[in-house]
């Protein structure tokens, strides 16, 4: 499979700060690739260098075989860009903005009505940008990014600041784009979003890529354990008691109950139920939690991503 994007030893400094530090990776054609990390990690700096909007201090970048710095004009014909902060003339109507953006390109989508439909904006064509809600503004910005029928779509912080329903709409939209076979390069600081949307994820922290794999691969590599979380009625049992259950590596007591750590959720659950039977205590509110990308970040860095 061909690479849509290749970065080799890419570095960017802002005076004494190295915002992107010797980063190398590639993105395959048709892939949904996520760059994930906390605020200030270097995501926007990196994505904007690939788009040709910022200039690297070192290393090499190719997008669709083009050098974004030297062949920016040619590249911009073939990519769609959603910036982290969109600035669209507030009084322009949605359909006028589409027409205006279409005029910037040689090649455009045949039918802007279709584009409005893809983003569920049909009935907003005559609305002024400033009158739209946050979610609708974001959808309009994406419609504008798609007006040239791009090969690669860049989405910087696709869902930051959106309410949960608007976020889910965005996720559905990314699924549509995936089906069209476009390459998507997105950034997010929501691990859940990356896990849900991306074929592969690069985790960036302090300008360095510290892990890169499929979401499943990252979680498996880490060997993070699942948790079995439960409460017991009328009991002040000692957590150590649960460590006798086969497959449980560790048990903890907290104000909300007990947590068992295990690599085999089923065995731990069965063992727990058997122990309860034998010792005559009643279990309430049992649930399991599988490891996710938040756990991956925590294990790699020792910090929560939301810090
Ligand atoms: N134009 C700039 N001038 C100086 N420092 C910048 C500039 N843009 C970003 N930075 C700094 O570079 C680091 C990475 O920023 P950014 O790429 O915006 O990260 P992210 O998108 O992951 O939040 C941050 O410490 C930020 O303050
Ligand atoms: Mg950013």
> Structural class per helix/strand content?
alpha/beta
Query: The CATH topology of the largest domain, please?
Result: Rossmann fold
Total domain count: 2
Query: CA-to-CA gap between the ends?
Result: 38 Å
Query: How is the largest sheet built, in terms of strand order?
Result: 5-6-7-3-8-9
Tell me the CATH architecture of the largest domain: 3-Layer(aba) Sandwich
Strand content: 25-35%
CATH superfamily of the largest domain: P-loop containing nucleotide triphosphate hydrolases
Number of helices: 10
Mean pLDDT: 93
Order of helices and strands: EEEHEHEHHHEHEHEEHEEEHEH
The CATH first-level class of the largest domain comes to Alpha Beta
**Overall spatial form:** elongated
Question: Could you characterize the architecture of this molecule?
Answer:
- The protein is α/β, with parallel strands linked by helices and 307 residues long.
- The protein has ten helices and 13 strands.
- Helix 3 packs parallel to helix 5 and helix 8 crosses helix 10.
- It is elongated, with a radius of gyration of 24 Å.
- The mean pLDDT is 93.
- The structure holds adenosine-5'-diphosphate (ADP) and magnesium ion (MG).
- The site of magnesium ion has 5 residues, from helix 1.
Concise synopsis of the structure shown:
This protein has 2 domains: 3-220, Rossmann fold, CATH 3.40.50.300; 225-290, 2-Layer Sandwich (Alpha-Beta Plaits), CATH 3.30.70. Helix content is 32%, strand content 29%. It has helices at 43-50, 72-78, 94-102, 112-118, 134-145, 164-179, 191-197, 215-222, 265-279, 293-301; strands spanning 3-14, 17-28, 32-36, 58-63, 79-82, 152-156, 183-188, 200-205, 208-213, 226-232, 248-254, 257-262, 283-289.
């Amino acid at each position: 499979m061909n690479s849509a994007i290749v970065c080799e030893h890419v570095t960017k400094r802002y005076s004494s700060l190295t915002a992107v530090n010797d980063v190398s990776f590639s993105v395959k054609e048709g892939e949904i690739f996520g760059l994930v990390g906390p605020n200030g990690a270097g995501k926007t700096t990196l994505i904007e260098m690939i788009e040709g909007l910022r200039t690297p201090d070192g290393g090499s970048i190719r997008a669709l075989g083009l050098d974004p710095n030297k062949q920016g004009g040619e590249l911009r014909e073939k990519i769609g860009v959603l910036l982290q902060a969109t600035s669209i003339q507030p009084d322009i109507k949605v359909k006028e903005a589409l027409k205006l953006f279409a005029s910037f390109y040689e090649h455009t989508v045949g039918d802007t009505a279709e584009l409005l439909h893809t983003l569920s904006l049909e009935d907003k064509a005559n609305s002024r940008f400033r009158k739209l809600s946050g979610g609708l503004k974001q959808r309009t910005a994406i419609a504008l990014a798609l007006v040239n029928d791009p090969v690669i779509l860049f989405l910087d912080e696709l869902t930051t600041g959106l309410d949960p329903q608007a976020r889910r709409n965005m996720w559905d939209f990314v699924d549509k784009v995936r089906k069209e076979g476009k390459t998507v390069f997105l950034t997010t600081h929501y691990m859940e979003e990356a896990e849900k949307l991306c074929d592969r994820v690069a985790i960036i922290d302090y300008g360095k890529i510290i892990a890169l794999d499929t979401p499943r691969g990252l979680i498996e590599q880490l060997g993070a354990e699942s948790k079995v979380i439960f409460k017991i009625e009328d009991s002040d049992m000692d957590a150590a008691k649960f460590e006798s259950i086969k497959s449980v590596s560790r048990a903890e007591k907290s104000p909300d109950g007990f947590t068992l750590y295990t690599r085999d959720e089923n065995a731990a659950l069965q063992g727990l139920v058997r122990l309860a039977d034998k010792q005559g205590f009643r279990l309430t509110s049992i649930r399991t939690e599988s490891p996710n990308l938040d756990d991956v970040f925590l294990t790699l860095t020792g910090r929560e991503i939301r810090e």
